[in-house]
Amino acid sequence: MNDYHNRRGFLKKSAITTLASLVGTKIMFAENIPARVTPLPLLSDSVDGKDPEMTVLSDRPMNMEAPAHLLDDPVTPINKMFIRNNGLPPVKESIDRSAWTLTIDGESVKQKRTYTISELKQRFKPHTYQLVLECGGNGRSGYYPPASGNQWSQGAVHCAAWTGIRLKDILADVGLKDNAVYIGYYGKDIHLSRDAKKVVISRGVPIKKALEDETLIAWAVNGDDIPLFHGAPLRLVIGGWPASVSGKWLHTISVRNIVHDGPKMGGSSYRVPVIPVQPGEKVEETEENFRIIESMPVKSLITHPKSGAVLSSNRSLSVRGHAWAGDLEVTEVNVSIDYGCTWQKANLSAPKNRLAWQQWSAKIDFPQNGYYEIWVKATDSKGVSQPMVMPQWNPKGYLNNACHRIAVKVVV
Amino acid sequence: MNVRRVTLAVAAFFVIAMGITCVSDLRNDQTTTDTTATTSLVDTLNYDPHSGLVVDTTLGLVVANCSGCHSTELIRKSRFTRDGWIAKIRWMQKEQNLWDLGKNEKSILDYLEKYYSPSSLDARAQMRREPLDDIQWYDYQ
Asked: Residue B38: what pLDDT?
């Protein structure tokens, strides 16, 4: 524990902070770290393997996101997955996969049960699903007046292949009472104040969402053990909802007879005003004024080409990306090169499984040379599509699903 | 179809024209106060290489009280009014074990308000989607 804290203390003065202040928001990790310092190993396994183009928003707690073009793969590789940590991950050396246990307790279980990871693997059937996890605050930097929290651009989202057991299988084994309302998770992360008694974050979902087939207790991502920064050795994975419901470093799930009331469930955390408010309006943080965010809204990204493409040999261009819609499916994707005056329908693939993102592609023919923006807009199975302008402002800047766009110059 | 296109284009033209008028009105209001002041302020600021925060006589206090738990990036990326900063500090005191800042609170707030308030953002904020900036052009093959 102390070892870890010393390391963090050292990191504070390290080149990362210095670099961050010199280059602004973007830290091109690998290339830019001077040779005399070796901060990467101190940042632990998954972080030092991250793609050098990842953007670090904060190194303590660690928050990093992917520029859109890094997310081109249908299944996001680990080194391109965003990190949103609310506290500090548990000390790597303290994580013993063979000794780690998961306890199911709470008012609404018939009896409390504890399982080791190998028991989970033996007793229950494993499943693998590709699931979209998106930070509730993804896109926050697009809100004005500025909303508090990490100023995410659009890359706090990924869709990886998670392997684990269904939460519903383990809950059936434990036995639920009829009065179950919600589940809440507890993880072993460390509060930023180092107060061992303080829970960093403990959120959850209504029992109906918890019992869906795709709600997993996972130990592997893309076929490998989950890396430290993504929740090793065990985590919840609940696609389509703010990623903060997918608790990391999971040791306990409480089945509650009330809406779970752990840290970051209340106030304005992961909540939006019930009534639309004027941008910047003060909203008193009461239960009646705010509602918990559930399914994330429809959204899409252009992942190829990277913004800034200069076309000098050909006036046509193949573009592609992903689209997703929380609990729903995307039924249509359109692209525009004239700021939304006209739209061209893109090809759209079916999702690999429920709650996975879908791939879209289109071939664009530019009418003449010049500067263009390519905008993409997805529509979900209820006919709801993305706004081109800033969506409904809210105090914490959640749910910004405004259309993504890239710049292209044609100079044939 | 063609008629519709034309109608759309005309409508779009009016919307854009109105938008430009509104935006320039807002801008003109602001230029005399916030924007100019900010520009000259920003130009002359020094940044501390370790914390990335603006150098000022209060910097030491801010670093001492505000960098123990998280990196100063969180402050650098934030823009709140004085009331907003007070609310943030109260929230951290209530929920996150931040201590009572005592008589230093006023100086810290003065500092945060001066360098990290919404008015120190430029006029980009007046538009609902600003033009793309920071485009790094590259040859597309």
From this structure: 37
How far A28 CA sits from the closest chain B CA (Å)?
Answer: 15
> For the complex shown, is ipTM > 0.90?
no
Which chain A residue is nearest to residue B134, measuring alpha carbons? Answer: A308
| B52, B97: one domain | yes
A40, pLDDT greater than 70: no
Domain boundary among A275, A292, A309: A292
Q: What is the pLDDT of residues A291-340, one digit of tens each?
A: 999 999 999 999 999 999 999 999 999 999 999 999 999 999 999 999 99
With a CB cutoff of 8 Å and minimum separation 6, the contacts of A171 are A104, A109, A210, A211, A255
The domain of B54 spans 43-126
> By CA distance, what is A11's nearest residue in B?
B71
Q: Containing domain of residue A310, as a range? A: 299-410
Domain annotation covers residue B134: no
Q: Tell me: do B54 and B119 sit in the same domain.
A: yes
Number of domains forming the structure of chain B: 2
Domain limit, last residue, from A30, A45, A60: A45
CA B20 vs CA A75, A227, B26, B121: distances in Å: 42, 49, 10, 20
Cis amide bond preceding A242, omega within 30: no
pTM: 0.76
